[in-house]
Amino acid sequence: MAKNIQSTTTLHNGVKMPWLGLGVFKVEDGQQVVDSIKAALETGYRSIDTAAIYGNEEGVGKAIGETSVPREEIFITTKVWNANHGYEAALAAFDESMEKLGLDYLDLYLIHWPLPSKGKFVETWKALEKLYKDGRVRAIGVSNFKAHHLEEIISHCEIVPMVNQVEYHPRFNQREVHDFCKKHSIQLEAWSPLMQGGLFEDPTLKEIAEKYNKSIAQIIIRWDIQTGVVTIPKSVKSHRIAENADVFDFEIAQEDMEKINALNTDERMFADPDEFDRT
C-alpha cells in the first residue's frame, strides 16, 4: 500500500500511476491553475488530472513547462468530451488537447462520459486503442462508466480499460462498479472524493478525524487509498493542497474503515451516467 505521496499503483499494462493526484475541475485557466499545479508539484504530487471541458489544458501545460520536475516523473490525465464521441472526432479532440497541453505524449486519456444516448462510446474507445497502439498515450481508460458500459467495451474491443474514474466518496462507494473493476484489473479512481465539502460536518467522520488527529479531508483521502482507489482531490489553496497530501503517516484501523463504509447511502452528487447526455 502507499507509503508516501509518490507511491504508485501498477495498471494492468504495467504503467505506474500515483495513488494521489491533483484534480483541476473548475480551476480557472491561467495563473490560478498554474499556481495550483506548481504548489502541488512542490509538495510532491506527481499526478495532474484535467479534461478538455475544464478549459484549462493550456494552463496545465504552462505549469508543466515551467516546473523543474522532469516531464517523465509527472502523470498527466485528460479526457475526451461528449461532443467528440466517434472515431475520427475523438482522434481530432486528442490532437487539440495535446496542442493545448504542449506535450509529446500523454500518460492517461479517458472517455469522459459513456453518453449511451448517442451510442458511440465503443467507437470512441477504438480511437483510444489506436492512440495507445501508436504510442501517443501510455494508458487509456474511461470515466463515469457503470459495469454494463464496461462490459460492452470489453466484449467489443481489444483492450480492457486501465482506469475507470468515477464519483466516489463515503456516501457513494460504487460497490458494484468497484467489484467489477477489481475482477477485470481496472483501476478505480475517485473524482470529487470530498463530496465538494459535503461531508465535513458528518459526525462519524468528525469522531474518526479526532481519533487520528487528522482533518476529515485527510481521513477520506486515506480511506480512498486504503480501499484501493486512486484519488484526485481538488484545491487551489497551497496549504490545503499540502494538507490533502499529508495522509501517509497513519493507517485507518479496520473497525474505523467499516464505520466509513457504513456511511454509504448511494447518494450521487452528479448525474447518473445512463442519463447524462450534455454535449
TrEMBL record:
UniProt GO MF annotations: oxidoreductase activity, acting on the CH-OH group of donors, NAD or NADP as acceptor
NADP-dependent oxidoreductase domain ranges (all copies): 21-264
InterPro entries assigned to the protein according to its UniProt record, in alphabetical order: AKR, AKR5G, Aldo/ket_reductase_CS, NAD(P)_OxRdtase_dom_sf, NADP_OxRdtase_dom
Positions marked as site (Lowers pKa of active site Tyr): K79
PROSITE patterns referenced in this protein's UniProt entry, alphabetically: ALDOKETO_REDUCTASE_1, ALDOKETO_REDUCTASE_2, ALDOKETO_REDUCTASE_3
Keyword field: NADP, Oxidoreductase
Keyword Metal-binding found: no
UniProt KW NADP keyword: yes
Residue positions binding substrate: H112
Active site (record annotation): Y54 (proton donor)
Family: Belongs to the aldo/keto reductase family.
PANTHER family to which the protein is assigned, alphabetical: 2,5-DIKETO-D-GLUCONIC ACID REDUCTASE, NADP-DEPENDENT OXIDOREDUCTASE DOMAIN-CONTAINING PROTEIN
Name of the featured protein: Aldo/keto reductase
High-level lineage: Bacteria, Bacillati, Bacillota, Bacilli, Bacillales
